[in-house]
Amino acid sequence: MAAGAVAQLVLKSLGIQVMSYVSQVGPLVLTKPYTELDLSKIEDNAVRCPDPEMAEKMFSFIDETRKKGDSIGGVITGVLKGVPVGWGEPVFDKLHAELGKAMLSINAVKGFSYGSGFEGVKLYGSEHNDAFYTDELGQVKTKTNHSGGIQGGISNGEDIYFQVAFKPVATIMVDQESVNEAGESVVVSGKGRHDPCVLPRAVPIVDAMSALVLVDFYLRAKANRL
Fold first, then answer.
1. pTM, full prediction
2. Is 205 helix (H, G, I), strand (E, B) or coil?
3. Eight-state DSSP code of residue 27
């Protein structure tokens, strides 16, 4: 987290924004894309969901889960704005691969996708391909962003967005079957204080890991120009 904070300061000086928020808790899914959300409201509630109405529902659901002595998982969406064109490599050090590696290194993470992710399999190539055009400022843009700001492992200048899936916390207050050292069946009961959902506390970790990956690629790009 300390290194991530420093990395975010470096990126801020470059005009790059690193943000993430809780977009799903159990069955509660925030269906609005990040482009329709006010991401400045991420820290306005304990769940770290920028949609106030959905945040309230998520909070209640987590609290109900806590009272049952159980736990629940969910999804964090990451958004990286202002990443310049050209960060990444075409084969071994793809930008999305390094982001995936960083996210999958976080405790409790079970999945990573970027851009259209698994939803993209429902589209034809003619629908999924991002068409390029030149805007009024002479900059090359894409009309859609199914690729999630990364093509061929290299940033294309569009927003980078991804999803990180977190499993439910394993230690719960509900009795669970297990075995002891002798291989005999036993019942295990959780003790102490354990989060019913790690999602809210994981948001800053996703930010930190994202920032560290981007700073690495910034330094690589800077070295390549020397």
1. 0.92
2. helix
3. T
- Determine the residue type at 88: G
Q: Which amino acid would we find at residue 169?
A: V
Per-residue pLDDT of the chain (226 residues; tens, 9 = 90+): 999 999 999 999 999 999 999 999 999 999 999 999 999 999 999 999 999 999 999 999 999 999 999 999 999 999 999 999 999 999 889 999 999 999 999 999 999 999 999 999 999 999 999 999 999 989 889 999 999 999 999 999 999 999 999 999 988 878 888 898 889 898 887 776 678 999 999 999 999 999 999 999 999 998 877 5
Q: Which of 79, 80, 72 is nearest to 29 (CA)?
A: 72
Query: 34, 26, 15, 31: which is closest to 77 by C-alpha?
Result: 34
Across the strands, what pairs with 113? 163
Cβ neighbour number for residue 201 with a 10 Å cutoff: 10
Q: How far apart are CA 105 and CA 4, in angstroms?
A: 14
Q: Decide: helix, strand or coil at residue 67.
A: helix
